[in-house]
């Protein structure tokens, strides 16, 4: 799930990436803005979700996916869009346009 917060005085959006998977021990966010390097998400015990926050430039679109336990790929089921990638699967897309709320 994606949550976005926009700032009045900055050209960036704070995006919270939240993902839950019942058996996952570790979830990593893999995205354009991480240079496609896996970044381990923090587990929130109370909500039983893995979370990461990033500040991203506004008026852009970024592709990303989740890597579960270093083996299984999954998309954000509440992403703004999905785009086919070069591996024949799909990437999730987060849109940081202020009008995209």
Automatic annotation (TrEMBL):
Q: Which residues form the AMP-activated protein kinase glycogen-binding domain?
A: 15-99
Q: Where is the signal peptide?
A: none
Could you tell me which InterPro entries the record lists for this protein?
A: AMPK1_CBM, Ig-like_fold, Ig_E-set
Pfam families tied to this protein: AMPK1_CBM
Its name, as the record gives it, is AMP-activated protein kinase glycogen-binding domain-containing protein
User: What is the originating organism of this protein?
Assistant: Pseudoalteromonas aurantia 208
């Amino acid at each position: 799930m994606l949550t976005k917060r926009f700032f009045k005085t900055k050209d960036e959006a704070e995006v919270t990436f939240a993902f839950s998977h019942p058996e996952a021990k570790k979830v990593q966010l893999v995205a354009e803005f991480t240079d496609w390097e896996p970044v381990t998400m923090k587990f929130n015990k109370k909500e039983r979700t893995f979370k990461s926050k990033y500040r991203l430039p506004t008026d852009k679109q970024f592709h990303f996916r989740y890597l579960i336990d270093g083996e299984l790929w999954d998309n954000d089921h509440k992403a703004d869009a999905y785009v086919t990638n070069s591996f024949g699967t799909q990437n999730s897309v987060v849109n940081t346009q202020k009008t995209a709320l």
